[in-house]
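Render this sequence as a predicted structure.
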Amino acid sequence: MVPLSAFTRYDPSTAPLAVNHSGAVPVRHDLVQPACRSGARAPRWTPINGAETEIRLPATIRDASRARRRLSRRRSPTSPSSIAAALVTVYIVLGVLYESYIHPITILSTLPSAGVGALLALMITAQRSLA
């Protein structure tokens, strides 16, 4: 066995868990959260925009946060088409599993009461949902 130190030098240090890319270029995402989720708008960052202009920030560096927010609103997991697609997928998987057309419907018919039960359990135990 050859020790690792025989052909390389290594030092334990911290590193990011992931490196985000935009195309082939590594990017850094600075997240700015609004003050509340009740529909209040995030403050405008005019000092930051002024600093970008002052230091003549290259055109290759751009703020993608607006585009990400717009895209996440468009691809919201609560959209009706996403829910319908999920139900159809579950129906198909259950149909293949049980080799029946009716058994998946009986199983899926329990989802509304299970959702109500989950919400009641959260209310009884005074837990907050993540939504």
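Summary. The radius of gyration is 25 Å. The beta strands are 21-22, 25-26.
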